[in-house]
Amino acid sequence: MRPIHEIIKERPWLGWVLFIGTAVIVFMLGLLASSVVERRAEAIFAYTPQLTFPQFEPDNAVWGEYFPRQYESYLRTSQTDFRSRHGGSVLVDMLEEYPAFVILWAGYPFSIDYRQGRGHYYAMEDLYNSLRPGSPGPGKPSPLPNTCWTCKSSDVPGLMNEIGIAEFYRGTWDTKGSRVVNPMGCVDCHDSRTMNLTITRPALVEAFESMGKDITRATHQEMRSLVCAQCHVEYYFNDQIEEGVQYLVLPWRDGLSVEDIEYYFDSMEFSDWTHGLSRAPLLKAQHPDYEIYLTGTHAARGVSCADCHMPFISEGGLKFTDHHMQSPLNNITNSCQVCHREDTERLLKDVYSRQDKIHESRKVLEDNLVRAHIEAQKAWELGATEEEMEEILYDIRSAQWRWDFAAAGHGNSFHSPVETGRIISLGIGIAQEARIKLARVLASYGYIGEVPLPDISTKAKAQSYIGLDMERKEAEKKVFLEEVLPQWLRGEEDDR
Amino acid sequence: MRPIHEIIKERPWLGWVLFIGTAVIVFMLGLLASSVVERRAEAIFAYTPQLTFPQFEPDNAVWGEYFPRQYESYLRTSQTDFRSRHGGSVLVDMLEEYPAFVILWAGYPFSIDYRQGRGHYYAMEDLYNSLRPGSPGPGKPSPLPNTCWTCKSSDVPGLMNEIGIAEFYRGTWDTKGSRVVNPMGCVDCHDSRTMNLTITRPALVEAFESMGKDITRATHQEMRSLVCAQCHVEYYFNDQIEEGVQYLVLPWRDGLSVEDIEYYFDSMEFSDWTHGLSRAPLLKAQHPDYEIYLTGTHAARGVSCADCHMPFISEGGLKFTDHHMQSPLNNITNSCQVCHREDTERLLKDVYSRQDKIHESRKVLEDNLVRAHIEAQKAWELGATEEEMEEILYDIRSAQWRWDFAAAGHGNSFHSPVETGRIISLGIGIAQEARIKLARVLASYGYIGEVPLPDISTKAKAQSYIGLDMERKEAEKKVFLEEVLPQWLRGEEDDR
Q: Residue B421 and residue A417: Cβ atoms within 8 Å?
């Protein structure tokens, strides 16, 4: 065969053909490469179906037919084999682990039963099984208002829409137990028409209003935290808003810090309960996760809850949000390591080191609060007056509020260790004030020396000390689980 | 002119000439580009002179002739107009700002005078002027050993080399004041032959040995922190090592944490002084900067002291280490922003937020320690026995150690806010124990109720409360500055 340059020398137009031909082929290769990289675009066209289910569909499985990946990952919130520093993995009994909690919550249901939360999948099941909310029996109403269901079930948005917010909250569990049965799910965070993130719990919208803000102006990235903040926040039940209704309120009017919320509760003279030993008018912090998160480094860098707890994953050509909400420590590759180029072991060590340091301080506060309650109990026994005790009880309230705010949040000691440490430090200082004043009161009644601690080395001993009849509570729960709950789950109204 | 392709058609060799010629030109362009980018290489050849000064040359200006950029930047440590949150910029009087410190240090020289440090440039000048180290007069020896000079002057390496380590430490200021006159500088961190970083202070080498480590195995990056750790550490003077010598020791044998070092001092029953009011056998933390830094995020990421406090800068074709050691907040562009892509304001806010939170807790600890000292003083007045007070005084020692460890370091609340917060929390808990026990002791002597605090609202009032004769101290200092110091600076021996 003759060399190509000789052929071209004879037929110059052939050179042009080769040149232009090459250009065209390279252009087509570019198109192909782009098409390969952007193949997700095809997926969108291929897999977006017309939705045919109702606006407030509570059944996650129905949504799952249209969004199988998200649904399948959501179902993995049923997994309970996650990494746990406590060794155990399923429903760690926090009172068994920290019997001091029983004393701190004497007179409040948390002293009865408090277990580590499991995934959203178990939101209803764990509530049914817990001894904490008590047990409605046949013909015996629940001690708890329907307000408690608000953060547990995907039936809530529909029911609220149907009967109104206050009417939803009205009454006790037994009156709506048959209508609130599905655990948290799709409809709680998604608009069923656009799939956009949406706020379905009015308390958060109202809390924004109380601060003079408009939640509808939140950006998409903010929404990736705010849908979580519908429930993972500090809240209380206000009975002054609607006659006979325990209305769900986030106490954010004066700000979101531990001091702001304390000021809010103080100025309305609110307390959740009176302590069984010290008679202090206490506040129970719920789980101020969002409030504490906001004070941390990740929030400051614009990282949302979903970025770490629901990181993007890829399956085939599709990149989607992992709906297996869980500890990022269980998925360091997709969460932490997207930004942090350190190896897994080092990242874990970092997290644990923060947690350990905070836990060490928290323990000091806990010990002092337990002693303060026991010492106050002693002071009452010796005949201390309301006047002598007033300031002391307020100090105990204030210190325990700080302890609970720091301890109750999920992940506070990681989300914002410096703020959490600050809160605990101040709590220790205040608990100290209470105990020094108590030492003086006790001395004025002739009691000098250390008030001995009762034996509270186990949950059972601590519960017995504060006078709980656990056998009765367990028997009542058995009746509820065997007789009442099956009715609810069949959607049947209570017999009464 | 005829088109080039027609010419080439006639003379095919011309095509080859054009092709090869182009390749050669492009290659040369590459060489040129590389040469422009790498022009620093020329600088190295052009500016590396043969050094002619002695191995332990103490005069920074002599080194400066060979390394003008480093020297000029070192000279900027004389600048005192740095960013200060206290408003002032020069030698902030910490006792004026925190009169409580006077009470905490009653009986110890820090209660006399304690000012914010200035740059290395002033290491000697500020020491001369401070009332804290007392004032040698003509014929009157200094109360302080020569060990104190160790971290202040570039004359130290040469003098130690000449007379030996222990002999350097031996005796009081007046005996070596005329030989130690230059402030910290080049020779303190650099080997004058290779310019490599080097450790010139034996205490750090010995501290590594006490931990079973060999400092000569440190990497260059570790050395970029260790040269600072020659002085920015916790230390004490041990009089048991060499007869009549206050030997400088870093108490690291059992580890570097606040608990490890406390254990070290406890096990040798060491105390720096007995408190003037409470009679507690106290420890004075120096500045455990390096120890706390090691527990923080930056150390965990391999960032050295020099990376932030002496970042690289460029001048013309040269990139060199800025020897203006200073707060990185004064140079955020070259320090923080090399890694952190946030704007200056946001970074400042981050730092301040950490500092504020830690400061808030530290204040609680301070207040409680002041009260503990005053309450212990009261207990002694009422006739408390050594036995009754022993445990209380140990608690005070332990709590104040934590306070001082957290407070004395430069930048602890930024370098490692979680560890610093932990230390303070535990300190508050221990101070509380002391005060509760004190309330019981006081009550047993019939004193029930709060022990009133004296008026310590200003430095002068606090110093008067602890019985300091400040006028005398100032008069003595005047004599020292006017009569003794000029002799020293002229290199003359003391008259005696």
A: yes
Which domains can be identified in chain A, with CATH numbers?
Answer: 60-353+468-490 (1.10.1130.10)
What count of other Cβ atoms lies within 10 Å of the Cβ of residue A162?
11
Residues 6+ apart with CB under 8 A from A193: A51, A55
The mean per-residue pLDDT over the stretch A257-283 comes to: 97
pLDDT tens digits for B61-117?
A: 999 999 999 999 999 998 876 555 655 556 789 999 999 999 999 999 999 999 887
Q: What is the pLDDT of residues A484-494, one digit of tens each?
A: 999 999 887 65
Q: Closest Cα to residue B227, out of B247, B191, B198, B249?
A: B198
Inter-chain contact B425–A297, Cβ cutoff 8 Å? no
Alpha carbons B232 and B305: distance in angstroms, whole number: 11
ipTM of the complex as predicted = 0.84
pLDDT band at A84 (very low <50, low <70, confident <90, very high): low
Q: How far is A418 from chain B (nearest CA, A)?
A: 5
Instruction: Please report residues of A whose CB lies closer than 8 A to that of B450.
Output: 440
Kindly list the residues from chain A whose CB atom is less than 8 angstroms away from the CB atom of residue B367. 429
Determine the pLDDT at residue A39: 54
Residue A79 main-chain phi, psi, to 5 deg: -70, 135
Residue B321, H or E segment: strand B318-321
Give the span between the Cα atoms of B204 and B248, in whole angstroms. 9
- Whether the pLDDT of residue A424 is over 90: the answer is yes
Closest-CA distance, B88 to chain A, in angstroms, reads 27
Give the residue-averaged pLDDT of B462-472. Answer: 95
Strand partners, A313: A320
